[in-house]
Amino acid sequence: MANIIEMPKLSDTMTVGTLVRWLKKEGDAVKAGDMLAEIETDKATMELESFFAGTLLAVFVKAGAQVPLGAALCAIGKPGEKVEAPAPGPAPEAAAPAPSQAPPLAAPAPAPAPARAAAAPAQPAGRVRISPLARKLAADRGIDPAAITGSGPGGRIVRADVLAAAGGAARGSPAGSAGAATIGAKGPVQEERLVPVSNVRGIIAKRLVESKSQIPHFYLEIEVDAEPLLELRTQLNAALEREGVKLSVNDFVLKASAEALRRVPAVNCSWEGAAIRHHPAAHVSFAVAIDDGLITPVIRDAHLKTIFAISAEAKALGKRAKEKKLAPAEFTGGTFCVSNLGMMGIESFSAIINPPNAAILAVGTTVRKPVVRGEQIAIGQRMALTLSVDHRVVDGAVGAAYLAALRDLLEKPALLLI
Length: 418
Fold this sequence. Notes:
Blueprint lengths: L2 E4 L9 E7 L6 E2 L4 E6 L4 E5 L4 E6 L6 E3 L3 E6 L54 H10 L17 H7 L33 H16 L2 E9 L1 H13 L9 H15 L5 E3 L4 E3 L5 E3 L1 E3 L2 E3 L2 E2 L7 H16 L13 E5 L18 E15 L2 E15 L5 H16 L7
Parallel strand pairs: 12-16, 16-17
Antiparallel strand pairs: 1-8, 2-4, 2-7, 3-6, 4-5, 6-8, 9-18, 10-11, 12-15, 13-14, 17-18
């Protein structure tokens, strides 16, 4: 009897998955452990592993389709064995704005776009060599792939070629990045179109609404003297440049956040209805922007790691996050979160709590401004920090104590090297 492979639950918040592409085709021999397909969840793109050996008898889902959990994807059995297509299941929960307006997503890329966008001219089959990601980006921007010269192997069109054809402005790039080239331009700012909501954006929207409507947020703001931190960072990076060490301001913030949780552990807790869970380890997550939203990789046991270990791990996690290659264990289980928009020039902001965390730290850019030192006015380097707190778990005095500990660590950054 044939074995039916169903859509598995690959993340804690997953309700549907997008089948990006098949790695095997009907009639192929399959061994246990072979990868059958790539699945895009609400957090990452992962490979679907076969636990059976045999022949891929039938594929029930086309690449690009959104599939609810438990729905049949394919069948594996003995060569020549007959298998019937399963009855269609219910429509996935995380769908586009209206069923009649929701074409299936073109799966390979994280950015949402219709698989058959009206803006993209139809292509003769087999005439254009283009990667799945590049095809989706071209459809999203209404670019005819036939008009693009490919720079990939054998003239294949890749993502960079589409971005170059679109004027070099990547999706989600900061406003104004096109510079003076847009000044005086005529016509609309963009083409009107309806883009289906992707798995990632749908889950983000759902969780943010739940967080903001169900968690009683309150906010605490402080300003930190960042001059000692910046001086120490400059000295360390210069001294360790030959070893490839380059610490960022965010590395110091992540380390300081973990150490502050050690000093004020009441913030390292979660609301569980009838009880409050106290977490023994500081698993500090940090927000990373991806094409279709954001994800929060987790640095586990950050309270036990050196700032150099945190820096290396954060860089590796951030890279995999942007490539949507994180494993579930790498973006779940955080107990505290840091969101840093300082590198984008934002002076201060308030972040929405990432459940089940009790708090999230919003980090602004460092600003040169007049400060009072003793009886004198001098030029200082100031960094704004805003702590969003779940009032069910953390009271104002506890939140204030946490920020005081965080300020002490950041203003005496040598303590972070111990």
